[in-house]
Amino acid sequence: MNLSYWEIKSWLQNIDFTVIGSGIVGLNCAIHLKERFPAAKVLVLEKGILPQGASTKNAGFACFGSLSEMIADLNHHSEQELSNLVKNRIEGLQLLRQTLGDKAIDYKKHGGYELFLNGQKELFEKCQANTSKINRLLKPIFGADVFSWVDNNQGFEKVIPQLSFNPFEGQIDTGKMMEALLNLAYKKEIKILNNITVEDIEDSLNGVNIKTNHFEFKTSQVFVSTNGFAAKLMEVNVKPARAQVLITKPIDALKIKGTFHLDEGYYYFRSINNRILFGGGRNLDFKTEETTEFGLTEIVQNQLENYLKEIILPDTPFDIDHRWSGIMGVGSEKSPIVKQYSNNIYCGVRLGGMGVAIGSLVGKELANLLP
Fold first, then answer.
1. Residue 40, by phi and psi: left (phi above 0), alpha (psi -120 to 50) or beta?
2. What SS3 state is found at 12?
3. What CATH topology corresponds to 66-174+238-330?
4. Model's pTM, two decimal places?
5. Is residue 1's pLDDT more than 80?
6. Any residues with CB less than 8 A from the CB of 21 and at least 6 apart, and which?
7. What pLDDT, in 10s, does the model give residues 266-324?
8. 93-126: buried (b, 16+ CB within 10 Å) or exposed (e) per residue?
9. Which CATH superfamily is domain 5-56+177-230+335-368 in?
C-alpha cells in the first residue's frame, strides 16, 4: 500500500492497543481502554465501510429474552446460569444508556410482547404453566414480576388471544446508537481505520504482529471483538449465525406499538417510524444460516412476508422497502466468551444474538482483562 511517512507515523507506529472490530463491543472496549490508560494510543480496525456483523444491522431490541426463550434455555442452563445471563443483559443495557444517554440512542420503553400461533397451543400452555417459576427466578433482579398475560388488542390474527407481556423491555435506534458510540470514540482521540481486513495475528514476546489486506504493523496488545467472525482469527467456540431482516414502507395509522417475539425468539418484529421491522427465521434452515456471508434466502424472506400478511398486518396493505442481513455469534452456551487468549491477545465474542443488551458490558469487561 502506498503509505507516506506521515501516515505510518501517525496511524501505525507505537500502537499500544489494537481493537479488531468497531461494533458495540469493540468501541466500548476502546473507550474503556482509553479511560483506563489516557496516554495510550488506541487503534480500531474495521473490515467494513460501516461496522460489519450485527451492530448496525440488528433490529434495535433492548431486550433480555422472551418467556418461551427463557424456558427453552433451562433445558441447557441451570436456573443460576439463566439468572446470571439476564442480570448481565440488564447491566449491559443500563451501561449502554448511561454511556450514551437515552436521547442519543432514542430509547423507548414500550414493553415487549410474545405471540403464540394457533398451532402452538402446547408451547402456550407450557409458558403459562412456567410463568410463576420464571418470575420467581427474575424477581431478585427486577424487584417485581416480569411476565404477565394480556389480551390480544392489536389486531393480530391466527394467534392465541392472550399474549405474554413484559413491561421492562425497550427499543432503540440502532443507527443513532452506533453514531453516538463512534462520536464518543473520536472525542477520546481513538483512531479508527475502516475497510481493513485483519488476515492474521501472531503473538510474540514483545507484542503482536498484525497482517491486514493493506499493510502489516506491530502493536503491544490486541483485543478481538469480531463476534461471529472470530473463528477466522482464533480457535474459539463461536459459530456464525446469519439473521435476515426486512422493513416495510410507512403505513398510515399503524397502531402496533412495542417489541414482539414469536417462536422462542426466532422471530421478532417492532414498530418504528410508522413501519414494521421484521426479522428472524434462521430456524427454518440452521445449516444455511451458519455462515459469515451476508445475503438473503427465498425460504426465510417468503416466511417473513407470509407472517406479515397473515398474522401481523392481516387487513393492512403494505410494501417492503428494504431487506438486509447481519451476522451474529452463537455457540453451545449463551454466555459470552471474555478471556485472555494468549500473552498479548484478548477476546470478547459470542454474544448470542443479544449484542445490544450485553455488548457494552462485554466491551468493558474485555478492556478490564488487561492488568
1. beta
2. helix
3. D-Amino Acid Oxidase; Chain A, domain 2 (3.30.9)
4. 0.95
5. no
6. 44, 45, 46, 51, 52, 53, 224, 225, 226, 227, 229
7. 999 999 999 999 999 999 999 999 999 999 999 999 999 999 999 999 989 999 999 99
8. bebbbebbeeebbbbbeebbbbbbbeebeebbeb
9. FAD/NAD(P)-binding domain (3.50.50.60)
